[in-house]
Amino acid sequence: MLVVDDELHVRSALARSLTLMGYYADEAASGDQALQMLECAPYDVMVLDVRMPGIDGVQVMSRACQLYPKLRIIVLTGFASLESAIAAVKSHAADYLLKPASIHDVAAAIANALQQRTREGPPRVPSPERFLNAGPVTLDRERHVVTVAGTGGGQVRRAEFTVSESALLVHLMQHPGTVFSCRELAQTALGYKVSEREAQGSIRPHISRRRKKMEPEPDHPRLIRNTSGKGYFFAP
Known about the structure:
Blueprint: E1 2-4, H1 8-20, E2 26-28, H2 31-40, E3 45-48, H3 57-67, E4 72-77, H4 82-90, E5 95-98, H5 103-119, E6 131-134, E7 137-140, E8 145-148, E9 157-160, H6 163-174, H7 182-188, H8 196-214, E10 224-227, E11 231-234
Parallel strand pairs: 1-2, 1-3, 3-4, 4-5
Antiparallel strand pairs: 6-7, 7-8, 8-9, 10-11
Helix pairs in contact: 2-3, 3-4, 7-8
């Protein structure tokens, strides 16, 4: 297995964790080094960062896909983008994970990739529409995981949402700056046809839970805001 990431602490921690799980894990600090190592050893799986100096992950994926068709690639990135998602699709990536991904998510993706390789069947191709991005927020619509990029040196926040929480956030993110009443959100995002009063009893707790999960300061929200007497809007 080959772990490719230009950040030493990320690369080493992941490789060490995988070694403790019984995998043999080599490390590469750049895209150039990864391609050189792929020429020297028949790796089964490569866990690959996207943003790296020099040859980036998108270029590595493209070359590796052509030269080593049996290699299973797991993309691990803190910056999901349409370009990298499309590159993952074209390279038949086994999975596409957002940093900070838990070691359990990475291990599950690796196990699935190895099963695919054993069966020699085509890998499950991630859809470029799987990720929704607006400002610092990226939503994985398949895993219902939200990642909020840190600002001013702040840490990246990662939160798992329920299906309904994810659906409501999708609607708000797709219409940034648009104020929706609780009734509109209940009907459009969740499919509930209720009165405004009934909707408030359902939507307000939803919004409160989302803020606690994704806002650095839930009592002073920057992302999901409200306009008094009118409703809520997303401010990327």
